[in-house]
């Protein structure tokens, strides 16, 4: 295929969150790409959040894995693929099909995912393919299947705009699904939608909330059980077509309101809002799913919608928002160990036979395979002897991450397919396979509202990288299944998947896109975003509004839920650590970490902790905390804030061995799972916290690479070079030597030393230009990061060692508006000096918040803080 740079923009889909925004990508022919929102894509209608808008900064070849490697040495594709096929074939021959496993990802395209699932479940003959969606959506899948008889998301995004009340449960929509949040915020501004946030933490999403319920951690099932009891008490109509009403009600009525940690008044306000209008949408995400009672929480929510018939009709329904760009596609192809394909059931012999016949498969998996946590246990104890990890970084993101990393390191044969050369997981592989990334590959993804969109190729592959589906198909062919894996184009894979969905549809599956079974390359290339199903029987729309479900008797099912408190805390680990995401980074930062603007919002791993806890533990703001659990240890920057409640601190999941080795929070998280879904309780780790007694703190910038060697460090990329936060318990004997080793520089630095105050400042200059600088102090280094960082890109830098901005150059502080580079200090100053009172006014004054809008909640918070200050002063 020839590529035509600098012609009409390519219509594609964002590779980050499950909103699935349409993107216009215009390559300039010189390696640069201009990114814009696609005005005609139904998910975003031209909007993009800051991560989408910064996609152009992440497309360089820096850090990419450019050729296959065997044992750390570059190898040819033939060598690598032969080795993978041989080792898998031999392991299966000797130890049976269940001695191998695939651990894959909701960031694969549907075509990649389809091929992986077909190879494992139909040809290798094992169910041992599971995915990071186990950590993400498994509880929703289980809840949907229990209630509806199928894993179906009933509603559409527009329901959030048509609703009168939108409840966000365990969802920080403002940061994690920003464009959907903006659609909600716009609807609220236009028609007064009431918004409720149910989250133990006061998140950016609370900016538009009429009510924030900071419930006790894990108490969601109790809250929705109480709502169900209230629904009954107010004798609202229960749907005729629902089973299990009585048992669910009995369990609900037995729920003790004290479990929620909320006041009667808060509960009453919530009930009045939820019951005051039919048009209610309950959006939920990881605060619900990632729990040891995740599936029950989901069903407690679904029960309330089933009980009131508020489902699958405009402006009403439960809405599980998916995290990854193709979490939904993975579910559709059957990528979870306990599913078959096209929403068919692996335990159902008729379903298995139908799929086997369709694939002409020699050996079908006959039972569910190992779910993620169990899979890595099997790797640990040697039951799985060959493992292929594709498009995910489990050495960072699995609970008990240190143990998982050790298990991978101890496995006989590990293959990793990734775009990047250096990740915590690629480091453990015997064979590394370079995958094409976003912009280089062609395929489809399904977003949270069941909309299938094309990702399109507009760049040549980096080095020798190949598409994941092609790599998998090559291995399938080399394992001996030539015909079954003999596609030439992703359109052929998609067509096969669509044809199989027709077989599934005939067996009663909701997922049926058989209209597309005959699709050719040209039609595939021109494919417009569409909602599934897409078949002779029905196209798009909502599910279950007609009262017909996918259960054997066609009736919906309410599930009796007895709320379980989260596992009690051990006295030695008295804090319950909550974990999650920040606004501008994506998971393990292999891509967002390449963007300077995305790295300025929050540049290092942190622990949000309540002032009362901080005072008790003697933790000063900006100091470091040592957090331990029975599974591991982390060192995190202390952020004292009443956004979190006492006893319930929060830490983000993004930092890794590459960016901050002691900031990996999954080292702390236990592998406890929900018994129904197998999803780990990632939001609830028992930990101990104490001050990390650093002898010295450092801040450094450098134009080149740095090799930090100290107890704590965190790296963030800058427009030129990088910045580093450092700390240690032992002071190096010679700071000049230390700095030379850190920066890999030989020359003589300029140095200022104040022994009495323990301050060291040194800088390496070359031709009058700053190469690197290190600032050391006995307390956390207080100086303007943005100013020092800017000096790397400027001539001179004479006031460098002062570390303070010149009078003419105010410090921007932490970046709030990443689009226009506007920091917290500028916004606060403008609010104070110009008397600004609205987000719009700040936008007019500074442009902040007027492009992607991701930072509008934070500007709102600054406005509130400013108004509180003024009120206090008056
Ligand atoms: N910026 C950004 N966006 C992303 C991602 C990213 O990495 N970065 N990742 C994507 C992915 S894969 C996913 S899955 C989604 C996740 O999207 P979200 O689920 O919205 O994000 P999280 O921050 O994981 O967790 C949501 C909230 O759950 C709350 N919570 C914790 N415990 C409880 C509880 O017991 N009950 C309730 N009600 N709430 C609780 C936390 O305080 C947190 O605010 O985001 C997607 N979008
Ligand atoms: N404590 C805690 N842990 C969590 C969570 C939490 O909230 N708290 N959330 C969980 C959730 S919901 C999720 S989804 C997971 C996410 O966790 P992971 O999936 O492990 O994280 P990513 O960084 O997205 O990893 C994707 C990898 O695939 C590579 N990659 C990108 N594109 C491609 C491609 O096209 N092909 C291939 N082969 N590789 C590619 C990237 O370079 C990267 O190494 O984390 C889970 N872990
Ligand atoms: S909301 Fe942001 S991250 Fe999510 S799909 Fe849209 S642009 Fe991408
Ligand atoms: Mo996720």
TrEMBL record:
<comment type="similarity">
    <text>Belongs to the prokaryotic molybdopterin-containing oxidoreductase family. NasA/NapA/NarB subfamily.</text>
</comment>
<keyword id="KW-0479">Metal-binding</keyword>
<dbReference type="InterPro" id="IPR006656">
    <property type="entry name" value="Mopterin_OxRdtase"/>
</dbReference>
<dbReference type="GO" id="GO:0016020">
    <property type="term" value="C:membrane"/>
</dbReference>
<dbReference type="Pfam" id="PF00384">
    <property type="entry name" value="Molybdopterin"/>
</dbReference>
<dbReference type="GO" id="GO:0045333">
    <property type="term" value="P:cellular respiration"/>
</dbReference>
<feature type="domain" description="4Fe-4S Mo/W bis-MGD-type">
    <location>
        <begin position="7"/>
        <end position="63"/>
    </location>
</feature>
<dbReference type="InterPro" id="IPR041854">
    <property type="entry name" value="BFD-like_2Fe2S-bd_dom_sf"/>
</dbReference>
<dbReference type="GO" id="GO:0042128">
    <property type="term" value="P:nitrate assimilation"/>
</dbReference>
<dbReference type="InterPro" id="IPR041957">
    <property type="entry name" value="CT_Nitrate-R-NapA-like"/>
</dbReference>
<dbReference type="GO" id="GO:0043546">
    <property type="term" value="F:molybdopterin cofactor binding"/>
</dbReference>
<keyword id="KW-0500">Molybdenum</keyword>
<keyword id="KW-0411">Iron-sulfur</keyword>
<keyword id="KW-0004">4Fe-4S</keyword>
<dbReference type="Pfam" id="PF01568">
    <property type="entry name" value="Molydop_binding"/>
</dbReference>
<protein>
    <submittedName>
        <fullName>Assimilatory nitrate reductase (NADH) alpha subunit apoprotein</fullName>
    </submittedName>
</protein>
<keyword id="KW-0408">Iron</keyword>
<keyword id="KW-0560">Oxidoreductase</keyword>
<dbReference type="GO" id="GO:0016491">
    <property type="term" value="F:oxidoreductase activity"/>
</dbReference>
<dbReference type="Pfam" id="PF04879">
    <property type="entry name" value="Molybdop_Fe4S4"/>
</dbReference>
<dbReference type="Pfam" id="PF04324">
    <property type="entry name" value="Fer2_BFD"/>
</dbReference>
<dbReference type="GO" id="GO:0046872">
    <property type="term" value="F:metal ion binding"/>
</dbReference>
<keyword id="KW-0534">Nitrate assimilation</keyword>
<dbReference type="InterPro" id="IPR007419">
    <property type="entry name" value="BFD-like_2Fe2S-bd_dom"/>
</dbReference>
<dbReference type="InterPro" id="IPR009010">
    <property type="entry name" value="Asp_de-COase-like_dom_sf"/>
</dbReference>
<dbReference type="GO" id="GO:1990204">
    <property type="term" value="C:oxidoreductase complex"/>
</dbReference>
<dbReference type="GO" id="GO:0051539">
    <property type="term" value="F:4 iron, 4 sulfur cluster binding"/>
</dbReference>
<dbReference type="InterPro" id="IPR050123">
    <property type="entry name" value="Prok_molybdopt-oxidoreductase"/>
</dbReference>
<dbReference type="InterPro" id="IPR006657">
    <property type="entry name" value="MoPterin_dinucl-bd_dom"/>
</dbReference>
<dbReference type="InterPro" id="IPR006963">
    <property type="entry name" value="Mopterin_OxRdtase_4Fe-4S_dom"/>
</dbReference>
């Amino acid at each position: 295929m020839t590529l035509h740079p600098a012609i009409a923009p390519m219509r594609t889909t964002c590779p980050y969150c499950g909103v699935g925004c349409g993107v216009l990508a215009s390559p300039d022919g010189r390696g640069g790409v201009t990114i814009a929102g696609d005005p005609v894509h139904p998910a975003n209608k031209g909007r993009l959040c800051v991560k989408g808008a910064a996609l152009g900064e992440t497309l360089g070849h820096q850090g990419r894995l450019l050729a296959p490697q065997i044992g750390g040495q570059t190898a040819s594709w033939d060598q690598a693929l032969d080795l993978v096929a041989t080792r898998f074939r031999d392991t299966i021959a000797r130890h049976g099909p269940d001695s191998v496993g695939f651990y894959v990802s909701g960031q694969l395209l549907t075509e990649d995912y389809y091929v992986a699932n077909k190879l494992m479940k139909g040809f290798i003959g094992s169910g041992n393919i599971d995915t990071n969606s186990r950590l993400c959506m498994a509880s929703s899948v289980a809840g949907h299947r229990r209630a509806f008889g199928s894993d179906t998301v009933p509603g559409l995004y527009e329901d959030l705009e048509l609703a009168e009340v939108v409840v966000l449960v365990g969802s920080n929509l403002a940061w994690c699904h920003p464009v959907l949040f903006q659609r909600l915020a716009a609807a609220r501004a236009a028609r007064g939608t009431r918004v409720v946030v149910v989250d133990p933490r006061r998140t950016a999403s609370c900016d538009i909330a009429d009510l924030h319920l900071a419930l006790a951690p894990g108490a969601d099932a109790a809250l929705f059980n109480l709502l169900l009891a209230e629904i009954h008490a107010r004798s609202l109509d229960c749907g005729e077509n629902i089973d299990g009403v009585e048992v669910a009600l009995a369990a609900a009525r037995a729920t003790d309101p004290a479990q929620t940690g909320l006041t009667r008044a808060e509960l009453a306000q919530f009930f009045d809002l939820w019951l005051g209008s039919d048009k209610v949408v309950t959006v939920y995400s990881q605060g619900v799913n990632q729990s040891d009672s995740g599936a029950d929480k989901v069903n407690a929510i679904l029960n309330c919608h089933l009980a009131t018939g508020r489902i699958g009709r405009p402006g009403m329904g439960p809405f599980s928002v998916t995290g990854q760009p193709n979490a939904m596609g993975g579910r559709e192809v059957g990528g979870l160990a306990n599913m078959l394909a096209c929403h068919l059931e692996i335990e159902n012999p008729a379903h298995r036979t139908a799929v086997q016949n369709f694939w002409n498969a020699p050996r079908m998996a006959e039972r569910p395979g190992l779910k993620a946590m169990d899979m890595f246990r099997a790797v640990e104890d040697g039951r799985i002897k060959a493992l292929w990890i594709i498009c995910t970084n489990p050495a960072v993101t699995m609970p008990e991450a240190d143990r998982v990393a050790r298990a991978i390191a101890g496995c006989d044969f590990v293959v990793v397919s990734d775009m990047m050369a250096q990740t915590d997981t690629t480091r453990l592989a015997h064979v590394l396979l370079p995958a094409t990334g976003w912009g280089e590959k062609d395929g489809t993804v399904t977003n949270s509202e069941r909309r299938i969109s094309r990702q399109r190729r507009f760049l040549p592959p980096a080095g020798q990288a190949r598409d994941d589906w092609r790599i998998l198909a090559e291995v399938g062919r080399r394992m001996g299944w030539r015909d079954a894996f003999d596609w030439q184009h992703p359109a052929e894979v998609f067509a096969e998947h669509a044809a199989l969905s027709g077989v599934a549809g005939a067996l009663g599956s909701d997922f049926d896109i058989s209209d597309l079974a005959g699709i050719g390359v040209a039609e595939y290339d021109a494919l417009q975003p569409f909602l599934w199903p897409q078949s002779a029987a029905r196209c798009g729309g909502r599910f279950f509004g007609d009262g017909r479900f996918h259960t054997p008797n066609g009736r919906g099912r309410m599930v009796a839920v007895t709320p379980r408190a989260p596992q009690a805390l051990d006295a030695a680990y008295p804090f319950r650590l909550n974990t999650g995401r920040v606004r501008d980074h994506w998971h393990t930062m292999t891509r967002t970490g390449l963007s300077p603007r995305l790295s300025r919002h929050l540049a290092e791993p942190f622990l949000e902790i309540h002032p009362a806890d901080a005072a008790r533990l003697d933790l000063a703001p900006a100091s470091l905390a040592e957090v331990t659990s029975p599974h591991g240890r982390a060192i995190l920057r202390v952020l004292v804030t009443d956004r979190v409640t006492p006893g319930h601190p929060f830490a983000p999941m993004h930092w890794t061995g590459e960016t901050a080795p002691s900031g990996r929070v999954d080292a702390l998280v236990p592998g406890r799972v929900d018994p129904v879904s197998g999803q780990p309780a990632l939001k609830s780790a028992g930990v101990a916290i104490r001050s990390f007694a650093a002898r010295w703190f450092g801040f450094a910038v450098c134009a080149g690479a740095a090799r930090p060697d100290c107890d704590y460090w965190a790296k963030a990329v800058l427009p030129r070079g990088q910045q580093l936060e450092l700390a240690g318990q032992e002071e190096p004997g010679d700071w000049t030597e230390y700095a030379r080793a850190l920066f890999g520089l030989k020359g003589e630095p300029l140095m200022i030393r104040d022994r009495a105050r323990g301050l060291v400042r040194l800088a390496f200059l070359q031709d009058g230009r700053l190469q690197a600088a290190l600032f050391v102090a006995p307390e956390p280094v207080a100086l303007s990061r943005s100013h020092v960082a800017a000096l790397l890109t400027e001539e001179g830098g004479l006031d460098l060692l002062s570390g303070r901005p010149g009078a003419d150059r105010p410090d921007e502080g932490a970046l709030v508006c990443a689009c226009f580079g506007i920091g917290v200090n500028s916004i606060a100053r403008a609010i104070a000096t110009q008397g600004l009172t609205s987000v719009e006014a700040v936008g007019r004054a500074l442009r902040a918040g007027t492009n992607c809008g991701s930072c509008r909640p934070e500007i709102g918070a600054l406005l509130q803080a400013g108004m509180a200050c003024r009120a206090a002063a008056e």
